[in-house]
């Protein structure tokens, strides 16, 4: 029987060891009394994965639940195998039985192409999914934060929009599955607060951009950056105004869509032309957050300058396009076991 010499086996042994010795970002140590068990639904998405990073690095135990409709494993794969992290492939329309101290409920498609792709599924995720998370919060005594949206304002008639404004929404339009779905999730939260004493928080997040944003997100910044990088016309719907932020509640500084197109084209150094398209049904004409309450109660205000956030996003998209062109993306070793929830139900 032929046997390989020990020297010939050493490279393979080191390769095997290195595949299970994954390095993680620095994590703060928290004592048992300070460390929270935190559930993040939609935690493999753009915003959710950044929240996962923050809570993990703060030293908490984080469980990410995602059905990967718009989220991606690669957004959180740098934590897989860490003792404080768990990833569960699960759809929130199915009940989840887990012991946690806090719940960050971000599970919902947020861009128009995604939420209009399957309106009934979007409604089920927002309604049944939120009921399941509120039921879980009630059972285990957890605090729940709902990541709501500026879409609850619809096409607002009041500017800027504060927390007391009820909005102006078409309940049967193409965007209604998301707009009204998110409005009812807020109603559910406050019903559970009043009737069951569940501790809830609601954050209405305006449009976001940054690294880990899906290239096919379909919203204005991702569209402009992708079009500019690929030398395609930047498609602008006239009259619209948009407020952008970087992983936060909102930026009160107003910019027209055309201003964004021109700025992104300049930052990319692109020769793309600007092409105007007809206005979409129920597209909001103007949206601007009133952040006075956030500043007063939380001491929060935007800190990332617009051009800095755009440049970081452009760099991320450039790397993504380069990897895509050269087929260079190689998944990192996944040493952790991934639990799977119940099978997803379809309409």
UniProtKB/TrEMBL annotation:
Belongs to the NAD(P)-dependent epimerase/dehydratase family. UDP-glucuronic acid decarboxylase subfamily. It is found in: Golgi apparatus, Golgi stack membrane. Residues 334-347 have a biased composition (Basic residues). It is a single-pass type II membrane protein. It is an enzyme of class 4 (lyase). Keywords: Decarboxylase, Glycoprotein, Golgi apparatus, Lyase, Membrane, NAD, Signal-anchor, Transmembrane, Transmembrane helix. Pathway: Nucleotide-sugar biosynthesis; UDP-alpha-D-xylose biosynthesis; UDP-alpha-D-xylose from UDP-alpha-D-glucuronate: step 1/1. The keyword Ligase does not apply. It comes from Hucho hucho. This is UDP-glucuronic acid decarboxylase 1. It catalyses: UDP-alpha-D-glucuronate + H(+) = UDP-alpha-D-xylose + CO2. Residues 327-347 are annotated as: Disordered. Its EC number is 4.1.1.35. Gene3D superfamilies: NAD(P)-binding Rossmann-like Domain. GO terms for biological process: D-xylose metabolic process; UDP-D-xylose biosynthetic process. Its cofactor is NAD(+). It comes from the Eukaryota. CDD domains: UGD_SDR_e. Residues 38-236 form the NAD-dependent epimerase/dehydratase domain.
